[in-house]
Amino acid sequence: MPSHNQKFVVKPYRPGRRQIEVILWISLAVLLFAGGLMLGFKFFGSAMVEKRQIQQELGSMRESRAGLEQRLANAELASRIDSVALEQVRQVVTSLQTQLAVDKEELSLYRNLLQSGGSESGLLIGELTLRPGPDEQSISYRLVVQQKENKLKRIKVNIKMTINGMGGGKDIAMGLEFLDQQFEESPIRAEFKYFHIVEGVMNVPAEFKPYSLAVVMWKKGVNSSRVEREFDWRVDRNIVGSN
User: Fold this and answer.
1) What whole-number distance in Å separates Cα of residue 139 and Cα of residue 134?
2) Residue pLDDT, tens place only, 148-183
3) How many Cα atoms sit within 13 Å of 49 on the Cβ side?
4) In angstroms, rounded to a whole number, what is the distance separating the alpha carbons of residues 240 and 243?
5) 117-134 per-position pLDDT tens digit
6) Nearest Cα residue to 211 out of 153, 163, 144, 162
7) DSSP characters over 130-149
């Protein structure tokens, strides 16, 4: 049996209400979609602007980097050119210093030859010059010998050069012929009228420490003309030898 408490609700029939609700929902969806598109375009535009700014800054940084790299390359090239130029100048100065030292020595020699007075006569042993050689253990040397007489004539002389030093805790005397390969025997034979220059390169053993160089010279066949001179072993390291 039907319950007496059951109630029936009667709604009025409205034929256009369903369509209005559909239209409203569609309109709301369209508005939401349009709003989303606007917000999306806004954010997209902002992102594109930021991207273009970043690209411009990146381009500027690349140009700046390229400019710095070019400046660095120019600086390195200039540095290499300056180094080469400096080395060339140093070589020229060294050569000029060496030549100047030689010219001074020869000028002193010529001045002595031109002097008419003085107590010295006969054979004379001039100055000795020692300089670093082309190798670490080599020494360039230059010795000037001469004769001084009122009437000069061509003479033949013998020259003996001995290097005194320490080796293995002992005093050792080594003839020049053992240190300079250009001389195969001792004494050195020379012939001159005014002066003669003995020069070359000595290869000094590392264990041999020279402290003096003794020179003996005499006319061939005339022992009474014998002259001697001993020099301290002083190597002029300010000027590199050119021999």
Assistant:
1) 8
2) 877 778 999 999 999 999 998 899 999 999 999 898
3) 6
4) 9
5) 444 568 999 889 999 988
6) 163
7) EEE-SSTTEEEEEEEEEEE-
